[in-house]
Amino acid sequence: MNAAGPTKGHLERLSDGKHPKEIVFVQCVGSRCNDNKGKSYCSKICCMYTAKHAMLIRDKYPDVNVTVFYIDVRTPGKNFDEFYRRAVEEYGVNYVKGQVGKVTPEPDGSLTVHGVDLLDNKQLKVKADMVVLAAAIEPNPSVRQIATMLTASIDTNNFLTEAHPKLRPVESPTAGVFLSGVCQGPKDIPETVSQAGAAAIKVVGLLAKDKLLTNPCTAKPDELLCNGCSACANVCPYGAISYEEKLINDHGVRETRRVAQVNNALCQGCGACTVTCPSGAMDLQGFSNRQIIAEVDAICR
Predict the structure, then answer these.
(1) In a shared domain, residues 250 and 291
(2) How many domains does the chain have?
(3) For 144-187, what is each residue's pLDDT tens digit?
């Protein structure tokens, strides 16, 4: 319907170029599913885009009937519910609460939508010239490679996770990595723009400083105890641990040994390496085993 689009502003079926008279929108296709065939999360933007498209169609082509099958209409933003109500009350869009079981192609080129109306408790068969699916938003498959490269956290749905959903919504658990947009989860344009601005301010706040403060509670290896097993490096989520050959003086015996080295600029003090190290060579500065035991002894006196 965009004048600069491929159909020069005309509403057409891509299959044969005919003008549709009956259009059905199906919501939550692949979203909010309970089995392994779809995504468990809500894609968030579909309800408003469907209302917008339905209103545009009805405004330009009042003779076209528009039906929307939905599970729930989710309109959480400012004036979003009023926008949806306009589609129903002013533009006559028919909203049907119920899911679609299947869509059957007919010999004449039309489609039969088999659905259910939960409010009237009855089965429906709607003949349509065009069916529009609101498919689930999915992250790009390459996001796992990016997350590995940046040592950023990722959830089971392949969305990048923030450090804290309320207090640090645009920061990644990895220092210096910030998030904005749909890489973190489904978002609409206003939310994406505001989050991008917040992330930019965080970056400017870092670059404007002459010096950066790092976390003092970082891991520190005891080279005399380290046996170079690489267990700590394998569990470090930030890639802060490496190994090098060093000349160690162990009670008068000088020998070359493979020992762990910690990059304090990368280490976030999570403590994963300290509990993994089989020889007990890795400790957190400020939270070493000796210090913790001393605190416990002091409390028990």
Answers:
(1) yes
(2) 3
(3) 999 888 888 899 899 999 999 999 999 998 888 999 999 999 99
